[in-house]
Amino acid sequence: MIHFIFSMYYSYLILGSKLIKSPDFLRLVAGGIQVEDSSNLFLIILYVAPKCLLFLWITNSFVKDLKSNFLYIFLRTSNRTKWLNKTIILTIISVFYYEAIFFTSIVILLVCNGLKISAWDILELFLLEFFQMIMLAFFSNGMQLFLNETACVFGTLLELTVPLIITGVIYENHGMWIYPAKCIPFNWGNYNYMMSYHSNTFITVLFISLICILIYFVSKRKINKYEFM
Fold it and tell me: Over the stretch 132-160, which tens digit does the pLDDT of each residue have?
């Protein structure tokens, strides 16, 4: 719900009182930050704050479970893989609930205002947002296996903000902002960025999925190589 409120406020700052009736309503609320807003620190904070809270909660649960079950996890290699798979599933479920609440709130608002809803538009934005969040959450959890908790919190903030700032600053200076928008994985899934360089949703989801698989195997290798003393 916090995500919905912050996204609505961000969209209201862009369109004002005409927001609800605007044909760009769905794109602004659920399509990610616009490139022209990516150098505005306040708007970036509005965009990333709810996501940051979710990731901090997910990573905190990850670390808490790791510490609580340390002996069980590391006494046998098979336990390590089982535990990692369990945390992956729980992460996916958590992100799904987060996005389901967000998009359900959007649909309810649209229905209450008598606006037409395109099932494909909703599904497309949901998939992009969902897979982007999964990738970011996997990365945040993966950092816990390599860095201390303080560094991981800082890393989570960086993964959410730095790609946007880089893209926005280059855009403001009339540079080739499309390159960081396309080439920095953390920007993948931002529909408003994708519209500018005509990216295909299926291809984007496929590449994000490959990144998630890579993060999984790197995390698995790290856990399995840990030597219990």
Answer: 999 998 988 888 888 787 888 888 888 88
